[in-house]
Design brief:
Layout: E1 2-6, H1 13-26, E2 31-35, H2 41-51, H3 60-84, E3 88-92, H4 96-105, H5 110-121, E4 128-133, H6 136-145, H7 159-175, E5 179-183, H8 188-203
């Protein structure tokens, strides 16, 4: 299975990725966790450029294409080979992030961003996508709680940007049947249980 996690920064998706990896590994399944951008030598180098706060002059077109380049390398080098081996692949963000962040958040033409993602991912379409949804006010609260960790270029974005990104995610959740929207204000274990239940239901067809 190919499972992706999406949501605003600080929504808690990375915690859920770790919990799911621990569960599946404990069941003896072959599991690979990846993150976006990143996951290969080339993709990690692109990640450094994308998230470096010094690159504040980066054009939105550059941002979109760099994300796509990183993703293309990850799909061809890691995701498709693993799926062909019947592994579980769990990704902390994937192509839906570009729809939410670059199309809705940055205002790049949605149809163009959509077509670019289809070109980049090919047959690497997630089976399930979990959207950990939190209100913008919670993003603000959690951001202020981050201590001794430097925020990256995108995490430094203003709240009106995150409003647009959330709108994009809710649009995707209504459009894509593979999406499962989960209330990110639930307790960590409650969210994990919902995720496990949804995977079990999907596996049973």
């Amino acid at each position: 299975m190919f499972i992706t996690f999406e949501g605003l920064d600080f929504c808690g998706k990375s915690t859920q990725v770790q919990l799911l990896e621990k569960l599946l590994t404990g069941e003896g399944k072959k599991v690979k966790v990846i993150r976006e951008p990143g996951g290969t030598i080339i993709s990690e180098k692109i990640r450094n450029v994308l998230l470096d706060k010094k690159n504040s002059e980066m054009l939105i077109e550059t941002e979109l294409i760099l994300f796509a380049a990183s993703r293309a390398q990850l799909v061809g080098e890691v995701i498709l080979p693993l799926l062909d081996e019947n592994s579980f692949v769990i990704s902390d963000r994937f192509h839906d992030s570009s729809i939410a962040y670059q199309a809705f958040g940055r205002g790049i033409d949605l149809e163009f961003v959509d077509e670019l993602q289809k070109f980049v991912i090919g047959r690497a379409i997630p089976d399930l996508t979990f959207l950990i949804d939190i209100p913008i006010e919670e993003v603000v609260r959690r951001k202020t709680m981050v201590k001794h960790v430097e925020l990256d270029r995108i995490e430094r974005s203003e709240m009106d940007f995150y409003e647009k990104v959330r709108e994009g995610y809710l649009f995707l959740a209504s459009r894509e049947s593979r999406f499962r929207r989960i209330d990110g204000m639930l307790a960590i274990e409650e969210i994990h249980k919902v995720i496990v239940d949804e995977i079990t239901k999907y596996s049973k067809g």
